[in-house]
Design brief:
heterodimer, A: alpha+beta, Heat Shock Protein 90, Ribosomal Protein S5, domain 2, Ribosomal Protein S8, Chain: A, domain 1, 3 domains, nine-stranded mixed beta sheet, 23 strands, globular, B: alpha+beta, DNA Polymerase III, Chain A, domain 2, 18% helix, 42% strand
Chain lengths: 588, 369
């Protein structure tokens, strides 16, 4: 093989091709273009942004801002790779305050689309323009322009058919663009956004709208009204935002937005922290709805981890975590958990008088039988006498307290402004759980010591995990000793757990400890132990309760800090306000 | 086969044998009782594959030898409810059915299963077996079985360790938190220690077939089973294959504190105080002073109680806490007027002497404050 042949095989790629390849990292689809351009505009100090999309952004993405604008010398460089105004030295990477910094975006976009920049600096008469058609950069020319910068990106991937083929339907691409834009609009309070698609307005938020107002505009009043503010500070670290009651939790994370120093990001660690804060209140598989903004000194966080800048690394994760968790947990507990999810009150389909449609047809489950109908009082042995006894009580003595046990499972209680239905097991479980926790926290742990320590075989790594936590475990009454590189001896267990086999408990502990990585503290271990005990020791669904028992249960629950969900996150009660009832009966 | 038997004797036999036979099994043949009639006897055989019993029914007349496999529970219940004194058993041959008759009026005909499907049940091996007085054996089991593990896990503790060394037969049971050891002298045996972990269920069956306490029964330590033979029955139990804790290591040899108390009074006081403890905070504290012991119990939910009684104490006044159930289990079996209790520290096991050659060790509960 000769040198000539070899050099024919391996070539240095021309810059244009390099940019096209690099574009693959930054520009995947119209949504990435939107993100890059809007972030540039925000970095340029935009107060009002107009984003125009056509055909889901494939045909056109145009971002117009009223920011600082650029001069002709900037335009010369704008489309070159690693040309940026935001970073000069390597040291600057340690404290990045702008959204973009890598200097790749415009070059990448320009190489795979027809791009045009039109810009005018404030206070200058003349604007400038430059075009880049698939990597061919034109000359900078003078042009009339409004203040700020407008960047148009047309016909994305027109010269890269392979990529173009991977684009989805217009609706899908538009959805992704809007998702990005919503996140940005929520993140940048103080900037107005107007978004159009095929010349129709899709959404807008005004400059002066705060986060709550923006959520209301974007996601509706029901969610906005239920949000609870979060605000906490620890040294230079600030957490602020809004979180929703658990019932708004969704199968996806589209309404879970974290902003780090103003930049939206999807960070695994922060997401887990949020999930942890909802533990016990939320169905574990569902993602809470929250809009949270975290401010951390730039030096404390490394954002140069991922090209799309959506993941970051915190220098002080260990300190940050307990702070976040504490603030979030407190806020979660303040949310309203008693209101049922949206689907409970589905009214009967209205049958107009004079028509026979539907008459004589019993609604069956298969026909989406309204849930309201299931609230009818079933004949229970205790129902009649209890009801009769309660009915005799003069209403003025107990204005909001009549209670009826239904199906030996639910307690229906009259409230001043409606009624609530309590799941007796769920509520009692919460009461028991809190009591056990208090008992354990008071430090009275009885430990049944083992005459013959039981040996549990574990993996080496698991033994390590346990070894770190031995003192904590001992405080909980779980007395373990490392017996060998893969063996742990159980010397004593809380006598509360006497029915539980040692190896199972140890394995569960290891799982809990390794799973949460840095999260579990004594608190969670305690929870782990107490959960199952609370369930076993509570009244069950199907237990008949005497009126006095019901009363004392409700009283005990009222004294708790949280009584809205059982320890597993199921709601303890469903509340129907008079307004809900009126809606169900078409009174309004 | 054709057999005439006394109803009461047959009923007794079926009761013993059906207690072994499983209600359902992946091997349906063992849901049956196997009847073997030979020249001069009728034998009932049952097994759940862990325990097997051969029971010889007395007072029978075999007119025609043979073997039959019939549904165990139905047969036992039918025979139990018969009123006549004699029962006639007859197989119709060729797997056509099995008839149980009593007098001219009462009869049933049961379906049969091919006897070839029944597992082979071993015969008792006389060679190397040892004679033991029946009462001695049942007493050792009664003294120890209460302490064997019941909860899931710790497989080896679900049996009673039975050891024969020289002229001593020992049984040891533990659930990991308490341990009991009982010994009885037997006819000297040759060789070293013979050891078997016999499942508690098997032990119960052994005791059930020993219906005459004065009878000398024979026991046999087999390779993987333990056998016992009486004049009527041969029982084998498959051994638990596991590591039994070294019991000698957990029984404290030297103790600094000793007290003696009236066993019945202590039992009664413990029961009294344990009433206020709950299932989850199950601990009583023994506050031991020079001449008196005070028992405290409390539970956060229910309140507290105390009771005192006189003791003879030699040692340093100490507090030590236990699960009262464990103590009561021991005291119930105490054979002495005064129980003797020895211990060192409140974290170390307490040793109770419940009778001659009868030791019970309990691990305390430590209460963090």
């Amino acid at each position: 093989m000769t040198d000539a042949v070899a050099s024919a095989v391996i070539r240095v790629l021309p810059e244009r091709v390099r940019n096209q390849i690099a574009a693959g990292e930054v520009v995947e689809r119209p949504a990435s273009v939107v993100k890059e351009l809007v972030e540039n505009a925000l970095d340029a100090g935009a107060r009002e942004l107009v984003i125009d999309l056509e055909e889901g952004g494939v045909k056109l993405v145009r971002v117009s801002d009223d920011g600082c604008g650029m001069g002709p010398e900037d335009l010369q460089l704008a489309f070159l790779s690693h040309a940026t105004s935001k970073l000069a030295e390597v040291e600057d990477l340690a404290h990045i305050g702008t959204l973009g910094f890598r200097g790749e975006a415009l070059a990448s976009i320009g190489s795979v689309a027809r791009a045009r920049v039109l810009t005018r600096r404030a206070g200058e008469q003349l604007g400038w323009t430059v075009e880049n058609e698939g990597g061919t950069i034109g000359a900078v020319g003078a042009a009339g322009a409004p203040r700020g910068t407008t960047i148009e990106v047309r016909d994305l991937f027109y010269n890269v058919p392979a990529r173009r083929a991977f684009l989805k339907r217009t609706a899908t691409e538009l959805g992704r663009c809007l998702d990005v834009l919503q996140r940005l609009a929520l993140a940048h309070v103080g900037t107005g956004f107007i978004v159009t698609h095929d010349r129709g307005r899709v959404f807008d938020v005004e400059r002066e709208m705060d986060l709550a107002a923006r959520v209301r505009r974007l996601f509706g009043a029901e969610l906005a009204d239920a949000l609870v503010p979060v605000a906490a500070e620890s040294g230079p670290v600030r957490l602020a935002g809004l979180i929703a009651p658990p019932r708004f939790s969704r199968g996806d994370t589209t309404r879970q937005l974290w902003f780090l120093n103003g930049r939206p990001l999807k960070d695994r660690v922060l997401a887990r922290c949020l999930l942890e804060a909802y533990r016990g209140f939320n169905d574990e598989k569902r993602q809470p709805v929250a809009f949270l903004s975290l401010s951390v000194p730039p030096a404390e966080v490394d954002v140069n981890v991922h090209p799309t800048k959506s993941e970051v690394r915190f220098r002080e994760e260990r300190r940050l975590f307990p702070f976040l968790l504490g603030a979030l947990r407190a806020a979660v507990a303040r949310t309203d958990m008693a209101t049922p999810g949206g689907k409970l009150l589905v009214p009967f389909p209205r049958v107009l008088p004079g028509t026979w449609a539907g008459a004589g047809r019993a609604p069956s489950a298969g026909e989406g039988r309204p849930r309201v109908a299931e609230l009818e009082v079933r004949e229970g042995p205790s129902a009649t006498p209890l009801f009769a006894a309660e009915a005799r009580v003069a209403p003025e003595r107990r204005p909001a307290g009549r209670v009826l046990q239904v199906a030996a499972t639910y307690l229906v209680r009259e409230l001043a402004d409606g009624l609530e239905i309590v799941d007796q097991h769920a509520l009692h479980e919460r009461v028991t759980y809190e009591r056990l926790k208090a008992e354990l926290a008071a430090g009275k742990v009885e430990v049944q010591r083992e005459l013959v320590p039981e040996l549990v075989e574990l993996a080496r790594s698991e033994v390590h995990v346990l070894a770190e936590h031995l003192p904590t475990l001992e405080r909980l009454g779980i007395d373990l000793a490392i017996f060998g590189p893969t063996t742990v001896a159980v010397h004593g267990l809380p006598s509360l757990l006497k029915r539980r086999a040692g190896p199972r408990l140890v394995r569960e502990l290891v799982a809990a400890l390794s799973d949460g990585e840095k999260l579990p503290g004594p608190e969670q271990l305690l929870d782990h132990v107490v959960h199952s005990m609370a369930c076993r020791r509570s009244v069950m669904a199907g237990d008949e309760l005497a009126p006095e028992e019901i009363e004392s249960l409700l009283e005990a629950a009222a004294r708790l800090p949280h009584d809205q969900t059982c320890p597993h996150g199921r709601p303890t009660r469903v509340r129907l306000s008079l307004a809900d009832l009126e809606r169900a009966f078409h009174r309004r | 086969m054709k057999v005439l038997c006394a109803r009461e004797r047959l009923r007794e036999g079926l009761t013993v044998v059906t207690s072994v036979i499983p209600l359902k099994s992946t091997r349906p043949a063992i849901e049956n009782v196997c009847l073997v009639a030979s020249d001069d006897m009728l034998e009932l055989v049952g097994t759940d594959l862990d325990v097997a019993v051969r029971y010889r029914v007395a007072d029978v007349k075999v007119e025609e030898p043979g073997t039959a496999l019939i549904p165990a529970r139905v047969a036992a219940d039918f025979v139990r409810d018969l009123t006549g004194d004699t029962v006639r058993l007859r197989s119709k041959g060729n797997g056509e059915g099995f008839v149980i008759e009593s007098g001219p009026d009462d009869r049933c005909e049961l379906t049969t299963v091919d006897p070839d499907e029944y597992p082979v049940v071993a015969r008792f091996i006389e060679e190397g077996s040892l004679p033991v007085l029946g009462a001695k054996f049942t007493r050792l089991v009664a003294r120890t079985s209460f302490a064997a593990a019941r909860e899931a896990g710790r497989y080896a503790m679900h049996g009673i360790l039975t050891e024969l060394e020289g002229d001593e037969l020992r049984m040891i049971a533990t659930d990991g938190r308490r341990l009991v050891l009982a010994k009885a002298p037997v006819e000297a045996s040759a060789g070293g220690i013979q050891r078997a972990i016999v499942p508690t269920k098997g032990m119960m069956l052994f005791c059930k077939v020993i219906d005459d306490p004065t009878e000398m029964v024979r026991i046999h330590f087999g390779e993987n089973q333990f056998g016992l033979k009486t004049s009527k029955a041969e029982v084998y139990a498959r051994l638990i294959d596991g590591e039994f804790p070294r019991y000698s290591a957990v029984i404290p040899a030297m103790t600094q504190n000793t007290f003696e108390a009236d066993a019945q009074a202590l039992h009664q006081k413990l029961k009294l105080v344990a009433n206020v403890t709950s299932a989850d905070t199950r601990a009583v504290k023994l506050s031991i002073g020079k001449e008196r012991i005070t028992i405290y119990g409390r539970s956060a939910a229910m309140g507290e109680a105390s009771a005192s009684l006189d003791v003879i104490f030699d040692g340093k006044p100490t507090d030590i806490a236990f699960n009262p159930d464990y103590l009561i289990d021991g005291l119930k079996n105490c054979e002495l007027q005064n129980v003797r209790f020895e211990f060192n520290e409140k974290n170390n096991p307490g040793k109770f002497t419940l009778g001659e050659d009868y030791t019970y060790v309990v691990m305390p509960i430590t209460i963090d404050t």
